[in-house]
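hey can u check if this looks right to u? its 446 residues, i copy pasted from the old doc so theres a chance i mangled smth
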Amino acid sequence: MQIGIKSLGCPKNFVDTEVICGKLREKGYQISEKIDNSDIVIINTCSFIRDAVEESIEEILNLVKLKKEGKIKYIIVTGCLPQRYKDDNLSQELPEVDAFLGVEDFLDIDSVIKNVLQGKQIYRICPEPKFIYNHNTPRTILTPQHYAYIKISEGCQNNCSYCLIPQLRGNYRSRKMEDIIDEVKMLSEKQNLSEIILIGQDITLYGIDLYGEYKLAELLKKLSLLELNNLKWIRLLYTHPAHYNEELIEVIASYPKICSYLDLPLQHISDRMLKRMNRPIKKRYIISLINKLRDRISNLTLRTTLMVGFPGETDKEFEELLNFVKKFRFERLGTFIFSREEGTPAYKFPQQIPMRIKKERLKELMLTQQSISKEINSSYVGKEVEVLIDEIQRELPKTAIGRTKGDAPEIDGKVIIRGDKTQVGKFIKVKVTEASEYDLVGEIRR
């Protein structure tokens, strides 16, 4: 039986999709690359903001169309969309869907499939997610074989006023340190990994629930000291600024395997906005932390995310944010418009900003960052950088695509490399010859 898989949303959701595939293969199912050539299609959805909900629904409706055309037989929808709307009887809204499963209800996917094949419609959504996978959980890595995401925690306890994640994913829970290390060892032996990427809703909080204190620094030390074949980069994503400490900064600065790349989601710089967002940080702390990170960690690439149009954001506060970006010149920056999500405190906040103004602010912030990014990237022209090869281009002869230590896969820019005799998963030296706002072009150094 052929089963097609479609994954939407973030890397954290992607790991769940890999677990689904692992469980399917454990039971003998075949995973099909072509959706319209499958008996069953499983779609793992995202729903934390309105755009994600709309994308998920659009993809489901595309599958419904294929089902009506006889190109697929059954549809299983899992993940954040059913979890968010668990009380809304999605089966009535989308009767063509054969099963709706929450964020951890795919664990018994074999049983669900057997019931679906018997003509039963399944609606199975846990009220409070508690699951987190371990190194013994079947998992099929779907990224290129030279890197893998390692989810070190699940859920969230920050309760930002605009965010649904704690409702969708449950309370914060860490994996045991030994279990994470065992998974990294196992994957490195199996795939000869060049890079691991640690993820979670808030990885700087890692360990607080299990050990009573922050343990990310200790975990990083242990991972850095592992003697593994090709592992050279350990990358950190989703490091909440409120939970940094001296030990963590020192470890990141001292261990060469830990990428001098930090994803530091700030959302805003105005103290009033941060308070309304229920972010437990202030402008003075943020500036102090950035300066400390820049001073202590050599050649640091800082990525952040910023939100515009939060309820009550004044022109002056937006200017404050814009000036902050101009002054601190982040190497990588993602910006988005506040999305008013029912079920969050911010949904009911007064002074909602008109969409026209939100879009104007977004455009101005993006243009500002594009200029900064172009200047920073242009400074690399003529210099040599280390690049990890992600793919060899088939359409363009003697061309490869890679990333520097300052680029996370699927999120940041890339390096387009001219030259032959490269290999996916290998590190090479590249001389940069051109630069744009997001990407670099270079040639292999001999």
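DSSP finds 14 helices and 19 strands in the chain.
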